[in-house]
Amino acid sequence: EIVLTQSPGTLSLSPGEGATLSCRASQSVSSSLLAWYQQKSGQAPRLLIYGASSRAAGIPDRFSGSGSGTDFTLTISRLEPEDFAVYYCQQYGSSPRTFGGGTKVEIK
Amino acid sequence: QVRLQESGPGLMKPSETLSLTCTVSGASISSYYWSWFRQPPGKGLEWIGYVHYSGSTNYNPSLNSRVTISIDMSKSQFSLKLSSVTAADTAVYYCGRRRDFFDYWGQGNLVTVSS
Q1: What is the pLDDT of residues B40-98, one digit of tens each?
Q2: Is A35 within 8 Å of B46 when comparing Cβ atoms?
Q3: Structural contact between residues B47 and B57, judged by C-beta atoms closer than 8 angstroms
Q4: Looking at the complex, does the CB of residue A65 fall below 8 Å from at least one CB of chain B?
Q5: Contacts of B5 (CB under 8 A, 6+ apart)
Q6: pLDDT in tens, B5-44
Q7: Helix or strand (DSSP H, E) at A91
Q8: Between chains, do A35 and B107 touch, taking CB under 8 Å as contact?
Q9: Chain B within 8 Å of A62 (Cβ-Cβ)?
Q10: Do B101 and A46 lie within an 8 Å CB cutoff?
């Protein structure tokens, strides 16, 4: 099973700042089959990025994904108040599908 | 507009079998794979498994021996059964669309296992 490790655990930032979230896989994720989700308290996860860099429908372009192999990044260019949440990466290159432990982006 | 809605019990006793149903609207249940997940309170997400209208399934090995996922096309529903539950199975259970990445999710159903 591919283990995904996200860092940092918590990111304390102010609105308007940029955020860089990391996801590292225990083995190469084939064909960059990696997704990112946003989850707000009490809500279901929301798909942001799939295929490592493709934005899902309706996702603002301040969200971008990059990376390949074992190292992936989610970048939020300028944090809006609604972006403070927990973010998860997920690989679908192999079974079982696995998620990272999450990065919480909190207001500084 | 695609919508998924979980339904099932909120409280269970140890050793019972958890049964949850996900009702799909706004999409053809025969056109996609459908998945189940869970999230213990304050913790991360775990994929449980998926089902296809053909009946094919794939389960997380960590739960494989206790899990059954089935589909009822006539009702546009798919279901999760998890046997012999313990307190460690206490979680919010979500259903979702697709088997690779997951583009639509239900709102979640909290299941608490307690004697």
Answers
A1: 999 999 999 999 989 899 999 999 889 999 999 999 999 999 999 999 999 999 999 99
A2: no
A3: no
A4: no
A5: B22, B23, B25, B106, B107
A6: 999 999 999 999 999 999 999 999 999 999 999 999 999 9
A7: strand A86-91
A8: no
A9: no
A10: no
